[in-house]
Amino acid sequence: MSVKERLKELEALQSVDLQILELQKAGEAYPKRLAELDAELGAARAAAEAERARLADNEKARRDKDAEITSEKDKTKKWEARLAEMRTTREYAALAREIDISKKAILNLEEENKALLETAIAIKTALADKEAELRRREDGSAAERAELSEKVGTLSGQVRELNEKRAEVAKAADPELVSRYDVVRKKRGSGVVAVVNGICKGCNMRLPPQLQNILRSGATIEYCPSCLRLIYAAEIMKD
Ligand SMILES: [Zn+2]
Is the pLDDT of residue 210 over 70? Predict the structure, then answer.
């Protein structure tokens, strides 16, 4: 088999490898996008959850206030019932003062409860917004996820086919050359390149004139001393 034929087989192999590489690179965007969707969804979920927690806190605070108001009112009622039993003016005045303090406390508590109720209304509005946003994201991301997983499926099918093709192409090529080619390709993405005007097209280094002469003779396949790719003079591949 001539050098030219062996090179053509390597080039065929590399063309399949480059297609596989391109597909794999395209595929890298999908998991990244999925992670972004997860993060956005997580943030929307956390925002809704935070409002729900604020509402629960508010409701508990209102229940506590209600309980305080009830107990304060009970106390006032008991004291009012006892007013008539007071023997002296001093005792009466003292209890009346307690009742007064308690009634003022009730008024304060009721004011506080009103403020809490207003806050609750604001929280409910915010919660509704956050939940709507979450649903919007869930619906949107479900559609995009389906699209992404379809793309992943198509892509892995294509890669599988190309890998089968690669195995066939590799079988036809010189096994020793293929293994040398593979070592460089795995590191650099390509394993065999042309030399044009004395320049390696893989790494753009100028080759020593002696090596250029050897390549031009077309008798052997050489390495680039700089990038270690398999090289050949472009002109020997011309028909
Ligand atoms: Zn090179």
Answer: yes
Distance between Cα 205 and ligand 1 center (Å): 6
Asked whether residue 158 falls in the same domain as residue 225, the answer is no
Contacts of 7 (CB under 8 A, 6+ apart): 192, 221, 232, 237
Alpha carbon of 193 to ligand 1 centroid (Å): 8
CA–centroid distance, residue 182 to ligand 1 (Å): 15
Please state the domain count of the chain: 2
Q: Is the pTM higher than 0.85?
A: no
Range of the domain at 232: 179-237
For residue 237, report the distance from its CA to the centre of ligand 1, in Å. Answer: 18
Buried b (16+ CB within 10 A) or exposed e, 164-196: ebbeebbeebbeebbebbeebbeeeebbbbbbe
The token pair that represents 30 in the structure block? 């999908």
What digits encode the pLDDT tens for the residues 3-40?
A: 999 999 999 999 999 999 999 998 988 989 999 999 99
Q: Where among 169, 189, 207 does a domain terminate?
A: 169
In a domain, 2, yes or no: no
Q: What's the CA-to-centroid distance between 21 and ligand 1, angstroms?
A: 20
Q: Give 225 Cα–ligand 1 centroid separation in angstroms.
A: 7
pLDDT of residue 238: 81
Centroid of ligand 1 to alpha carbon of 231 (angstroms): 8
Residues 152 and 230 in one domain: no
**Distance between Cα 227 and ligand 1 center (Å):** 4
